[in-house]
Amino acid sequence: MEALVENDDPRVPVTILTGFLGSGKTTLLNRILSEQHGKRIAVIENEFGEVGVDQELVIGAEEEIFEMNNGCICCTVRGDLIRILGNLMKRRDKFDYILIETTGMADPGPVAQTFFVDDEMQTKLRLDGIVTLVDAKHVWLHLDTSNEVKEQIAFADVLVLNKTDLVTNDELEKLESRVRAMNRAAKICRSLNAEVEIANVLNVGGFNLGRAMEVDPKFMEPEYPFEWRGVYTLPSGRYTYCLKRGPDPAMNIALLPVGNVRTHNAQASVMDAVLLFSEDAIAVSPNETIRPGRQLHRLALTEDSQNFTFAVDAPGAYALYTQHKPEEFQAALFSDSSMACPVEEKDFKPDHEHDDEVSSVGITTPGDLDKKKFNKWMSELLRNQGTDIFRMKGVLSLKGEDNRFVFQGVHMLFDGRPDRPWREEERHNQLIFIGRNLDRARLKEGFHSCLA
Amino acid sequence: MPGVAQQAIPAAHNLPERWSAVMDDCVVSIAWSPDGEHLSAASASGSVCIVNVESGSLERSFQAHDFGATSVKWRPASEEIATAGQDGRIRLWNPHSGELLHELDGGSAWVEHLAWSSSGTHLASAAGGKLRLWNPNGSLAREYPQHPNTIAAIAWRPNASELASACYGQIQIWRPDSDQPEKALQWKGSMLALAWSPDGQYLCHGNQDATVHFWIVRSAKELQMWGYPTKVRELAWDRRSRYLATGGGSQITVWDCSGRGPANTKPIVLKYHEDLLSQLVYQRNGPLLASGCIGGRIAIWEGKNRQPLFTAAMPSAIAQLAWSGDGTRLCVGCEDGTLTVLETSESPAAARR
Predict the structure, then answer these.
(1) Residues 279-298 (B) with a CB less than 8 A from some CB of A
(2) How far apart are CA A342 and CA A148, in angstroms?
(3) pLDDT tens-place string over residues B101-160
(4) Cβ-based neighbour number of residue A221 at 10 Å
(5) Between A64, A70, A119, which is nearest B149 by CB?
(6) At what angle do helices A371-385 and A440-448 cross, to 10 degrees?
(7) Residue A63 in contact with residue A108, Cβ under 8 Å?
(8) A356 confidence band (pLDDT: 50, 70, 90)
(9) What DSSP string runs through B270-316?
(10) Which of A304, B20, B48, B194 has its CA 20 to 30 A from that of B167?
(11) What is the dotted CATH code of the domain comprising A2-220?
C-alpha cells in the first residue's frame, strides 16, 4: 500500500548528494546519469569539480543561505534552490528526477529545510533523501574537526563508504561503527569508485512519513553492555588470560560456547550475551579459574598485571565478550606460551575517546502518549534544542487514537500526521533523534514523562 | 518547435473570449505593445511569439533563447521588444520582422529580470548579482556594484529615473547617473517581488517568510503585514495608489492605504479561489483587479466589492495576467502554454467606469 502511494505521487523526487571534496560525489552522479539513461534528470551543482558531469542539463548555482524568522520558528533555507527549482518546475517537459550536488563544505540542513518551508516546492517536488559520500580513508582527517563532515553524516538517509580499496577491512569496520553511532537511522553501503546499486540511493523514501520507521534493523540497535567479542577455536585444555592495569579496576566478561565456528549464530549469541550481562556477575580474583558457560564474571584488575585461567573441557568455538576493549588492558589469551588469536572479532561500540558530539538517540517504549504532554515537551525541546537536532523521526501511539501517528523533522521544523491504524502488533512508540550534544538520559526521561 | 497553434478550449464563463492559442510551453511573460494592437509572449522553452490582438493571428514566432525565456518587455512608445533568458543573454528584437537588433550579456547564467524605464530610455537587467543598465542602442550605460545575493526583483519608480533592486537583506535605489545607491533599505529577509505605488510614495515587497512589507520611501519608515499562509509574490497597486492587493494564499488581501495608511487596519479579504493565487494585476487606468490561481481560475473584482464581477476557467494553472493599456482586454497565459485574450470592454463594469 505504501509503495503504491509513492508511485502515484506525481511530484518529482529530489535527492541531495553531499560529501567532502574528493569523496566521489561527481563519480556517483555520473554513474546515476549513465545507468538511468533515458530518464530526464536535472542536476543542480553548487561547485564545478575537476570532473565534469556528463549531462546536458546541469545548472550551476551559488549557495545562497537565507535566514527565515517566522514567529518562533527560525530556520535557514537555500534561496538559490527555491529560485532554480521554481523555475525548472514551470517547464512542460518535466523531469523524472532532480539531483542536487552540494559543495563539500555544505551544511545539508538548509537544503533539507528548503523543502519544508516552501509550499510551491512541496506541491511539485518530493525530497526523497540525502545521500552522503564518505571517503573511507581520508574522512579520518576531518571526522573530529569538521562540523560539516559531522553534519553531512548526521543528516544522511544513505551513507556510502566509498574508496574501500584504500583501507583494510578492519579500518572499514571501525569507520562503519563510528558513523553508525553518529547516525543510526541511515542505510550504510560500501563502494569502490562509487559503484552502488542505484536502488540504494534513489527513491529511498527518507522523508516519507509513511516509511518513517522503515529503516535498517540496526537503527534500534541497543546499547551493548560489552564493547568487544572475539570468537576462538579452542582445543580442550587450560588457557591463561593476561591483563594489565587499565582504565577500570574491574571488568565483566563472559565466555560462551558457540558450537562450530562456521555455523555459530552470531546474532543469537549476541542476544544471549546481552541478557547475560544484565545478570549478576560473580567476582573473580586473579589466578582463579573460569569455566565457559552462561555466567557473567567480574574480573578484579587492581594489579599492574594479572592472570586468570580458562578451563576448557570440550573442544569447540567459544565467544569471549568483554565489557571493555582488550587493548585498554593489553588483554591476551595464551595456551602454554603461544598466544591464541580470535578467528573473528567484533567491536560493539566506537572508541570511547570518540564519544562523538554528534550522535543518535533512539527511544522505544510501549504505552500510549498523552497528546498534550507530548506537544508541550516537543515544542519546548525544539525551541531549546532545535538548532542541535538535525533530524528526527518516529511513530507514536497516542492515547485515544486508533491510528499510528508518524512524524519527522529537520531542526525546528516538525511535520506529522496520523497514519494507518495500528495492526495487531503491540502499540508502541519508536523515535530517533540525530543531533549534536544530545543528552540521552534527559531525552528518554522527557519522553517517558509524556506517557499517559 | 516553438510557436503557437490555434486550438479550441472550453469557453470562459461569463467573460467573452476573443481568441485562444497555445504556445509550446508555460507562458512565463506577456507584454502588450504600447498601442494595444499586438501582444508578445515568452515561454519556458525560450520561444517568443507576436500575436495580432484583433484577429488572434500569429504574426511571428521565434526561438529567442536557448534554454528558457524569463521575460519579455515591450519598449514604451516604440516598436521594439527586449527578451531575457536562461542562456545569460538579453536580446532586443524588431517584433514584426523578428530581426535581432542587439544581443547583450547579462553577466550571469540566468537573466531573470528586465525593466524599461517609463520613458523607454533605459533598459535594466538583473542576472545573479549583476544589475546592468543599457541604452536602447545596445550599449552598456552602467554596471552597478555587484549585489551580495541574486537579485530577486527590480522595479522603476513610476515617472522617475529611480530603479529599485531587491536581494536578500536589502533594497537599493539607483539612479542612471551614479554607481552609488541613492538609498538603501535594510531588511533581513528574502524578498520575492517589488511593487511601487503609482504615486511613487510606497515601495512594497512580498516575502518568502509569508509577510508583506511597506516602505514609505521618503521617510524610510516601514510597516510589516503578516499572517499570510504562504510566501507572497503577488502584489498589485490600484491606479490611485489606494489599494494594495496581495496574494500569499488562496484569498486576496487588500490593504487600504488611504488616510493614515494601512497600519492597524483590517484588510479587505476577497474569497473566490480555492487554490493558491499566482497572479494579481490592476488595470492601469481603471478600477478592476484581475486574479488568477494555480487551479486555472480567473476572477475580476471591483473596489471593495467582495463578489467577483466575472470569473473564467482556464485549462491549467494561470501563469501570467496582463491588462491591455486601455483596460478593455485581459491577456491570460497558462502553465500548459494556453494564451488567451478575454474581452472586458462590453462588460457592465467597463461601462460604469
Answers:
(1) none
(2) 38
(3) 999 999 998 999 999 999 999 999 999 999 999 999 999 999 999 999 999 999 999 999
(4) 14
(5) A64
(6) 150
(7) no
(8) confident
(9) E---SS-EEEEEE-SSSSEEEEEETTSEEEEEETT-SS-SEEEE-SS
(10) B48
(11) 3.40.50.300
Q: Please give the CATH architecture assigned to the domain spanning A357-448.
A: 2-Layer Sandwich (3.30)
Q: Does B108 touch chain A (CB under 8 A)?
A: no
Label residue A272 by pLDDT band (50, 70, 90).
Answer: confident
In chain B, residues with a C-beta closer than 8 Å to the C-beta of A59 are: 109
CA-only gyration radius of chain B, Å: 19
What residue spans in chain A does CATH classification 3.30.1220.10 cover? 357-448
> Does position A55 have pLDDT exceeding 70, yes or no?
no
Q: Chain A contact for B86, CB < 8 A?
A: yes
Q: What is the pTM of this model?
A: 0.79
Encoded amino acid at A39, one letter: K
Which positions ≥6 away from B22 have C-beta within 8 Å?
B4, B5, B6, B7, B336, B337, B338, B339
Q: Report whether B313 contacts B12 (CB < 8 A).
A: yes
pLDDT value at residue A48: 65
- Find residues 203-232 of chain B whose CB sits inside 8 Å of chain A: 208-210, 229-231
- The answer to whether position B292 is within a domain reads yes
* Residue of chain A minimizing CA distance to B27: A90
The burial of B191, by beta-carbon neighbours within 10 Å (0-12 exposed, 13-18 middle, 19 or more buried), is given as buried
Shortest alpha-carbon distance between residue B85 and chain A (Å): 11
- Mind telling me how many Å the CA of B68 is from chain A's nearest CA? 9
- Least confident piece of the model among A208-217, B41-50, B321-330: A208-217
Which CATH number belongs to the domain containing residue B327 in this structure?
2.40.10.360
- Find, in chain A, the residue whose alpha carbon is nearest to that of B149: A64
- State the ipTM, two decimals: 0.88
Distance from CA of B235 to the nearest CA of A (A): 17
pLDDT in tens, A421-448: 988 767 888 888 999 999 888 998 999 9
**pLDDT given for residue A290 in this prediction:** 94
Whether B289 maps to a domain, the answer reads: yes
Residue B65 lies in a domain: no
Is A63 within 8 Å of A78 (Cβ atoms)? yes
For residue B332, the enclosing domain spans 272-353
Cβ of residue B46 closer than 8 Å to a chain A Cβ: no
Q: Cell 574480573 appears where?
A: A299
Average pLDDT, chain A: 86
Domain count across chain B: 1
Q: Which of A40-49, A149-158, A310-319 has the lowest mean pLDDT?
A: A40-49
Band (A108; pLDDT cuts 50, 70, 90): very high
Does the CB of B80 have a partner CB in chain A at under 8 Å? no
Nearest-angstrom CA–CA distance, B317 and B333 = 9
- Structural domain contains residue B345: yes
Chain B residues with CB inside 8 Å of A121's CB? none
Q: How many residues are recorded in chain A? A: 452
Q: Indicate the residue of A92, A119, A120 with minimum beta-carbon distance to B337.
A: A92
B327 touches chain A (CB under 8 A): no
Closest CA to B19 of B346, B348, B331: B331
B12 pLDDT higher than 50: no
Residue with cell 511597506: B214
pLDDT, mean of residues A273-285 = 85
- Report the distance separating Cα A275 and Cα A225, nearest Å: 9
